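Narrative of activities, Objective 1.

The group set out to show that a structural description can be obtained from nothing but a protein's sequence at a throughput compatible with the screening campaign. Below is one input-output pair from the validation batch, recorded exactly as produced.
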Amino acid sequence: MKKKKLTIYDIAKELSISPSTVSRALKDHPGIGKKTKKAVLRVVKRTGYKPNALAAGLRSNKTNTIGVIISEINRPFISSLISGIETTASKAGYNVIITQSHDSQDKEIAIAQSLYASRVEGLVVSLAMGTEDYGHFDQFMLNDFPVVFVDRVPEKVNLDKVVIDNFNAGFKATEHLIQQGCRRVAHLGGAQRRNVYRERQDGYLAALRKYQLDIDEDLICNTYVTSAKEGYKVSEQMMNRKLPPDGIFAANDTAAVSVIQYAKQVGLSVPDQLAVVGFNDDPISLIIDPALSTVSHPAVEMGKIAAQQILNDKGNEGFVAARTTVLETELIIRASSLRNSKLN
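Output recorded for this entry:
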């Protein structure tokens, strides 16, 4: 079995410091204390870590370009995120290179290498669904190129991040369904290794506990739905259980809309027999009948903040502490979940 290559993220995690601090310690930066430098060097000596840095002088070549790595550009949330990034970058005289990982870690690695070679001056990343290692971002960190992670972010490492309060969003969506009279609320989520889906599910579970409702594992599905066909299949499986749900909270609007379409085809009334809430407030949420209740996702604002962090950090040779920006969401209530107006 191939041994995993050590990265500055592993060193940072072991020492409970940020990757940027590790990077600066390795370069004997005056802004890093002697104690921290010694601790980093001890780990390096013990593990045999070797930096994966390309040309050290690359930073002096200015390109006024920000690189962006996202999963799929055809998703409304992603296109809005890019719009926010481009708006802020353009105002500052910067260009944006947009790339797609198609939710593949291998593709993400190749893109990161290509963007570094293209001399981008910063990087905004929303991780691929399959990414489990972050070593391909070392070359940016080691040469002080700012990297900001958005939405799908690395965990347990101290990095610049722009996220939403997924836990609270999941809680509010589930609580709304319960307050509408639902007693068997199902959750259509996504891969639990990604922060966004695990946190939304945690919020869902917390709401069930608050209202002392049973947690039925049969009502939790973590199949990542990206198409109507997948959503229809998952909906069919869920509704054909011995005890089907009377409410569904889906972690994205594609899955939620598929639930409504399936329900209408088999003669279930939405929301009277099955109340539905989605996530993202995609345009399709207003097209489907009944209109979909959903959680708004401030994608444009997230993109603007991420780009501004890149611009603020660019050229900063001093120590900059990692920052996490957490934005709130809004539950948008529409006809798909309003079972009884008296309950509101």
